[in-house]
């Protein structure tokens, strides 16, 4: 599983930088960058009042819109549609609804026509009935060739270089970096270690039901229909409590789905840093916030100042966006 | 939370031993000890065909009956009964059933009289309606004085010294050690780090429902009535998949509730070690297996030889049992 490294991923650089080098070269020299570095310096300097022991240096990040792009739809939906199309080649009778037929035809508008119910139908159909290991291999295979529907760029290359640098920087400074995302846990694990350097046990996400069975003599964990956990909104602090059991000291998100996680983490004692990636760059990426059908950011935008959260201005703070 | 170290726990020793010392001094020089050391040597020697990269050196252990004692009832039930009694002092109206009344009176027989339904009633009553942090502090406080109902020994001292040594030895050899237990995740986290050296993110267990709320301005995770996940039998491999995302190479358990976890983990490619603590020592601990109402071991006993699992004979393999 995940043995074939994605070609685009292999271009991403996680090299440890010498201490005198700029740890965040793709960040412009703005207040945002200064505040991040000041926070890391303060929490890792044993002489600082804000020193935090390495065991408590927990940093968590949302994935869609925070570590990689999410427009025009979550990339996991693109995968789900592709898999429905491949499943229908073997067995057209699985296309039991207009939404599934649209998904199989690559018709994004049709796939979205039934709102959330339709999306769940596409995801459940495509994400169940196979083993966890077969599923992760299938995602990994898909990512080798999947391209963005608008730009034609490889999906796996649509990760944010500044955030890759931030993840590496934090790890170099003794932080444990976690993903805490509404995305599917097995979907993300298929690439999180190769692309973000985040191992499977540090990926927290939504999960479908699963079951254990010995199939033809082989002990197997199967992905079943149905949803076991939704790691979004208040689900994010709950997921962190259940899986990590500690309150993170650094949290990054991009939408109001991250609000509760930011609120909970930054309310803890001692130094805390909350950050929100604000999509302000229509030229190099996308510009959207309050009215976006995906990654909507409204309350976070209204309250980030009063709460002391760092609003990352993608257009102004990031020198480069893509690797 | 957990700031007051338990007095008995502070006596436990986790010192790193020099390489030439016996890493398992409380284990007799039997085949069991030889097989454990041979497995660790083979998986950590880069020249060995069975070498395993540190990232894949995942070791998981059941808790009740594997790392600490479990007779005459799970110690978590003793805590639950004690908490029901304290809750009833404040508000006697919570004692709405005979089982809860028995629990409040410390009447173990009465608490068990209604079988599993009664136990769930006692656990749900005592494990909900407070925040996670208040709950963990309450467990920690209880453990400072809780004694065993039969022996009067401190509960926190009823951990197995040979297993403490095994946990330390494995960590010294680059293994990550996890608990995977049917016990409650927040209950175990209250002592797992102090007593076993296992941090909260490496404790996997059963979980009640929880919710996130801002209470009097304080973001809080509350423990609610109801059960979210049962980490027993087939739930153990599922819990490991969800939280670790890798198949362990070493698994320790003691009852048929660990069967599926042992089966799944030892079926993986490469070197694997499954072990079962067999309670054979009525003099120093307890002797029980097939017919025990708690920690019943039957299928594991029948199949351990054929499956190559190591059956640990507590009476013969352990020189000391208690710290
Ligand atoms: Ca997001
Ligand atoms: Ca057990």
UniProtKB/TrEMBL annotation, chains A, B:
Against Pfam families, the record matches this protein to: HAD
Q: Which UniProt keywords apply?
A: Hydrolase, Signal
Q: Which SUPFAM superfamilies match?
A: HAD-like
Give the Gene Ontology MF terms in alphabetical order: hydrolase activity
Signal peptide segment: 1-21
| Name by which UniProt lists this protein | Haloacid dehalogenase-like hydrolase
Lineage of producing organism:
Bacteria, Pseudomonadati, Pseudomonadota, Alphaproteobacteria, Rhodobacterales
């Amino acid at each position: 599983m995940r043995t074939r490294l994605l070609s685009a991923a292999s271009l991403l650089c996680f090299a440890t930088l010498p201490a005198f080098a700029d740890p965040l070269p793709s960040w412009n020299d703005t207040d945002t960058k200064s505040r991040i570095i000041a926070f890391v310096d303060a929490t890792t300097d044993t002489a600082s009042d804000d020193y935090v022991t390495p065991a408590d240096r927990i940093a968590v990040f949302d994935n869609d819109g925070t570590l990689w792009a999410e427009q025009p739809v979550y990339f996991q939906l693109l995968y789900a549609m592709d898999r429905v199309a491949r499943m229908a080649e073997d067995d057209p009778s699985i296309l039991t609804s207009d939404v599934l037929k649209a998904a199989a035809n690559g018709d994004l508008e049709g796939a979205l026509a039934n709102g959330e119910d339709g999306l769940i139908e596409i995801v459940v159909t495509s994400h169940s009935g196979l083993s966890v290991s077969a599923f992760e291999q299938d995602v990994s295979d898909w990512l080798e060739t999947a391209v963005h529907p608008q730009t034609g760029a490889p999906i796996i290359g649509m990760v944010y270089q500044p955030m890759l640098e931030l993840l590496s920087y934090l790890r170099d400074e003794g932080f444990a970096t976690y993903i805490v995302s509404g995305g599917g846990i097995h979907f993300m694990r298929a690439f999180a270690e190769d692309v973000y350097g985040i191992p499977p046990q540090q990926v927290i996400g939504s999960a479908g039901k699963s079951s254990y069975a010995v199939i033809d003599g082989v002990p197997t964990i199967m992905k079943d229909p149905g949803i076991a956990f939704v790691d979004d909104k208040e689900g994010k602090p709950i997921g962190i409590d259940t899986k990590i059991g500690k309150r993170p000291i650094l949290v990054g998100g991009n939408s109001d789905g991250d609000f509760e996680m930011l609120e909970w983490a930054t309310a803890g004692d001692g130094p805390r840093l909350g950050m929100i990636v604000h999509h302000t760059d229509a030229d190099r990426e996308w510009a959207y916030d309050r009215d976006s059908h995906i990654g909507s950011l409204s309350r976070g935008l209204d309250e980030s100042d009063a709460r002391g959260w760092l609003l990352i201005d993608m257009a102004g703070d990031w020198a480069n966006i893509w690797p």
